[in-house]
């Protein structure tokens, strides 16, 4: 499912991080998720208008002693919005990253050392239907 998507650019950096920076504003250039060097691709579907856990294909994640940053490119139908929420628990504190921009998007979130996290999503669309999406992901140095 190749589709051209808007590039999200904020001072030359794609996306946003969990450390408190909000998602970047959309710009006019376009990219193709399949050309971004992503090392993991998940083709899946979700029921519409219901928050679902594990939209990244994992029920939960447990991090080791190193911090990581993930870059994700989402390929969804042009008429939909896929709200992504990453909930992180580390050293007794909780933080949340939310990206609710419509259409295809690229975003980043960072995970600290010794963290536990889950990825939730709500895909808008006609009631009582399932919509397919493609989740492209790569891990980059934190």
What does this structure look like?
This protein has strands at 4-10, 13-14, 26-32, 40-47, 52-53, 61-62, 68-75, 82-90, 93-99, 105-111, 115-123, 130-141. The protein has 142 residues and is mostly beta strands. The protein has one domain (4-141): Jelly Rolls. Strands 5, 6, 8, 9 and 11 form a five-stranded antiparallel sheet that branches. A four-stranded antiparallel sheet has the order 4-12-7-10, with no helix packed on it. Residues 1-26 form the signal peptide.
List the topology elements.
Layout: E1 4-10, E2 13-14, E3 26-32, E4 40-47, E5 52-53, E6 61-62, E7 68-75, E8 82-90, E9 93-99, E10 105-111, E11 115-123, E12 130-141
Antiparallel strand pairs: 1-2, 1-3, 4-12, 5-11, 6-11, 7-10, 7-12, 8-9, 8-11
Keywords: Signal
Organism: Microbispora oryzae
Protein name: Streptomyces killer toxin-like beta/gamma crystallin domain-containing protein
Summarize the structure in short.
The chain has 142 residues and is mostly beta strands. It is 0% helix and 56% strand.
Kindly name the structural category.
mainly beta
Give the SSE string: EEEEEEEEEEEE
What do the pLDDT scores average to? 80
As residue ranges, the low-confidence spans are 1-28
In terms of DSSP E residues, the strand content is: over 45%
Helicity, as a percent range: under 10%
Rg on CA atoms, Å = 14 Å
Number of strands: 12
| CATH secondary-structure class | Mainly Beta
Largest sheet: 5 strands, antiparallel
CATH topology category name: Jelly Rolls
CATH architecture descriptor? Sandwich
The shape, in one word, is globular
Question: What is the number of domains?
Answer: 1
Distance between the termini: 29 Å
Count of DSSP H/I helices: 0
């Amino acid at each position: 499912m190749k589709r051209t998507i808007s590039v999200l650019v904020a001072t030359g950096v794609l996306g946003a991080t969990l450390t408190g920076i909000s998602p970047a504003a959309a710009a006019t250039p376009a990219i193709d998720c399949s050309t971004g060097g992503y090392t993991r691709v998940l083709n899946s579907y979700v029921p519409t208008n219901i928050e679902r856990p594990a939209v990244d294909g994992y029920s939960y994640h447990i991090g080791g002693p190193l911090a990581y940053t993930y870059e994700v490119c989402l390929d969804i139908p042009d008429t939909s919005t896929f709200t992504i929420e990453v909930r992180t628990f580390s050293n007794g504190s909780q933080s949340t990253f939310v990206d609710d921009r419509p259409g295809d998007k690229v975003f980043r979130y960072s995970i600290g050392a010794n963290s536990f996290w889950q990825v939730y999503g709500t895909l808008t669309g006609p009631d009582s239907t399932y919509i397919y999406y493609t989740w492209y992901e790569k891990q980059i140095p934190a």
